[in-house]
Structures are given as C-alpha cells and as structure tokens.
Write a structure and sequence with these properties.
The protein has helices spanning 5-45, 50-74, 104-115, 135-141, 151-167, 185-198, 211-224, 272-296, 315-343, 345-364, 367-375, 378-391, 393-406; strands at 79-84, 93-97, 121-126, 145-147, 173-176, 229-238, 255-264. By secondary structure, the protein is α/β, with parallel strands linked by helices.
C-alpha cells in the first residue's frame, strides 16, 4: 500500500523538530545554568571558598548532565544496556573507553547515572571545547582537564589536576579516551596506516590508543592515591552509530551498550613500558569484544565475571533520578532566566559582564586552571583560609572543618 505524501512529509519533519527541541533545551539550560555557575559561583564563591564552590558546581553539573541523559533516553528513545563486572557505591575510579563517535561522552552520562557518580565525573578532553560558549563555561566549572596536544603543557595540567583532587580527597571518577579522538573515516585510515608502519595488528572496530597520557595518568594516580579502581568500558551502538552532532537532527541509535571490565589500580604494572603494553593488550581484547558485539547485537559476560550483571542503582531508582533532575534543572533554568534576564538591568549586566569576562579569562587561564592553581595545594589552602577568615567569616567554619578533616585532625 502506497504511503500518503502528507504522512511521508510529516515523518521527515519529525526528526528535525525533535533535534530543534533538544538543541533549544540544551542551549537554554546550559546558558541559564552558566548564569549561576559563572555569575554566582565563579565570581562570589571560587575566590573565597573551595568547598562551597565545588559543592555548588557539582550539584548543578549533576542536574545538567542528567537532564541531557534524560533527553537522549526519553526524546530519542535510546535504551542503555550494561554488562560485565559490577561496581560498588563510592568507588574512586579512572574510567577509560573506546571513542566510537563524537557523542560518546554524552551517551555515557546515562551510564554514570546508573553505575557511577555523575556529579563527580571529570572528563579529559580537547582544549577546543573549553572555548565553545556557553557549553565550555559549564565544562570549565566542572573542573575538566583540557589537553592542548602539547605534551610539555598537558603533562603539567594532568599532574596539577591529579594533585588537586588527591589533596582534597575528592571522590573523582576521571574519564579519558586513550584513542584521543573519535573513530571517523579519516582517523580510521590514519590509524591503519600507523599500525602498518609500526608493525601492529590492524584494528577494525578501534583506533590504536595513544598511550603517553594514559601511562602518565596511571603513574600519578598510584603516586598520589587518586583512585582505587580502573574501569575499562567498551561502547557499542545499535542499529547504527551517531557519528556527530548532526545526528540530533536525523536520529540517535535505539541501543547503547556498555561493557565493564574492572581492575584494581594496584594490580596494574608500574613502569612506562609495562603500562603501555597493558593498555595495548586491553585494546586487542576490546577489539574482539566489539567484533562479537556487532555480530550478536550484545556483549557477553566474560570468564570470571558474574553470570548476570547487577546494576548499581536499580532501574527504578535511575528513572526517578532522571525525572527529578530533569524537572529540577528546567525549573532552575526558568528561575535563573527570570532573575538574570528579566528582573532588573543590574542582574542582566551582572550576567553579561560575567560571561564576557569569563570568555576573556578562558583564553588567559580558565576556571578549571584557576581552581587548581588557587586551591590545589595545602600551602595555598592555608594562605587562602587566612584571607577567608578576615574577609568572609561566614565561609570560615565550613572551610576550617573541611581542612582539618583533610589533615586528619580530630575536631
């Protein structure tokens, strides 16, 4: 039976309208959230109190990341399936994954909602995203680690961030993509050329990993007791892969699959060469996992893993978190918009001035670098604490209490 042209026309418009809704909600919510994280958090809290600043930023980060997961799942109908090793509440972890498409880190927010701690997720990513206003402002306020692709610069950025989180006893879950970029057609060809020159096996489902940053990160994590576990995530999509942001206007895959292999950090080797080889061995095993996934449409539990994966948060709990966070953030966005853009010229000027100032400051340093530099060592904590005691007594009690806990002094 021939389909009516009107129905065909309507069906062709639906993906575009859905993409427009997603784009509007994402842009509106991140812009209004930035009014709070930048105009309020960065200006009023960051210079004076790290605990108050980081707590507020993490709370807003959790609600916005969860809102994006909500839209992907509810607006596009994408269902997440998790398999492999089980996780436990409170685990500090270095999380690494294959980078199949440009949207992996957004899809992974659904995984963090169920298996991790979305409010403590920190992402290692390209520096270009830092300058992409207004999204870059929020990613900066989340204290992500931005890489310049200059190892003399990047090595110090990674170390400074690790020391910062370690000194704070921050329960971080740090996400890195060792491939360094997504598996586009061009990068796949380059990876195969690299493998041929280096005498490495050809990979069909992965790019060969760039080991320098991963090796550096593992050694620092061990040295500073940053995390307890290493999560190896394998990502698969069905029935197709959404390679770029254009897919928001054409459609997202209905299935997103995450397979976890968990290791104790202490079980990883210690030398550069051994860590690099460990990563390559994991990549060859991941290649076989993905080959099996795209053949069968699902990941299988491996030998030594539980027969059935037990999700850390029951699906009913995850659904409640998705709905509550989405509603909360949308309400927060409306309140923020009314205050900063409709209540008075003073509030409007405060917001715009903060945005312009941050965009300029991003080129100079950035919120994440300022946070790490100002609050990254105990010496700087003492120095800034004296300033807080004199200038902002209301912040002092919380800061003193946290510092004493960090120094393991009984109050």
């Amino acid at each position: 039976k021939k389909t009516s042209p009107i129905i065909v026309a309507v069906m062709s418009v639906i993906p575009v309208l859905r993409g427009a809704v997603f784009a509007f909600v994402a842009l509106f919510s991140v812009l209004t959230a930035s009014c709070i994280t930048v105009a309020f958090g960065a200006v009023l809290l960051l210079p004076f109190s790290w605990p108050w600043y980081r707590t507020s930023q993490d709370f807003i980060q959790r609600s916005w990341f969860t809102l994006m997961a909500f839209l992907i799942e509810k607006l596009y109908g994408t269902k997440i399936t998790v398999s492999g090793d089980d996780t436990k509440e409170g685990e500090r972890a270095l999380v690494f994954s294959n980078h199949r498409c440009r949207l992996d880190w957004m899809f992974l927010w659904s995984w963090f909602v169920r298996e991790g701690r979305v409010m403590n997720e920190k992402i290692i990513m390209k520096e270009d995203i830092k300058y992409l206003a207004p999204f870059g402002w929020s990613i900066q306020s989340a204290c992500s680690i931005f890489l310049k692709r200059d190892w003399t610069v990047d090595a110090k950025r990674i170390e400074d961030a690790v020391v910062h989180f370690a000194n704070k006893k921050y329960p971080v879950q740090l996400l890195i993509f060792p491939e360094g970029t997504d598996k586009s057609e061009n990068m796949t060809l380059r990876s195969k050329e690299f493998a041929k020159k280096q005498g490495l096996p050809e990979l069909n489902y992965l790019l060969h990993p760039r080991s320098t940053g991963f090796v550096h990160l593992v050694k620092l994590a061990k040295k500073h007791d940053l995390v307890d576990y290493v999560y190896d995530l394998s990502l698969g999509y069905e029935p197709f892969v959404a390679q770029s942001e254009k897919s928001f206007f054409t459609g997202l895959p209905s299935g997103f699959h995450v397979h976890l292999n968990k290791f104790k950090l202490s079980d990883l080797p210690d030398t550069d060469e051994e860590i690099e080889q460990w990563l390559r061995d994991r990549w060859y095993k991941k290649e076989k996992l993905l080959e099996q996934f795209y053949k069968d449409g699902k990941f299988k539990q491996e030998e030594g893993q539980p027969k059935v994966h037990t999700q850390l948060k029951p699906e009913s709990t995850a659904q409640i978190q998705l709905w509550v966070s989405a509603i909360f953030h949308l309400v927060l966005s409306v309140v923020s918009f009314n205050f900063f853009f409709r209540s008075s010229w003073l509030a409007f000027a405060w917001a715009i001035g903060s945005f312009v100032g941050l965009q300029w400051f991003s080129k100079k340093q950035g919120l994440e670098a300022y946070e790490v530099e100002k609050w990254g060592s105990l010496k700087m904590q003492y120095k800034n604490l004296l300033f807080v005691l004199v200038k902002n007594p209301p912040f002092a009690f919380f800061d003193v209490s946290l510092l004493m806990i960090e120094m393991k002094v009984n109050i």
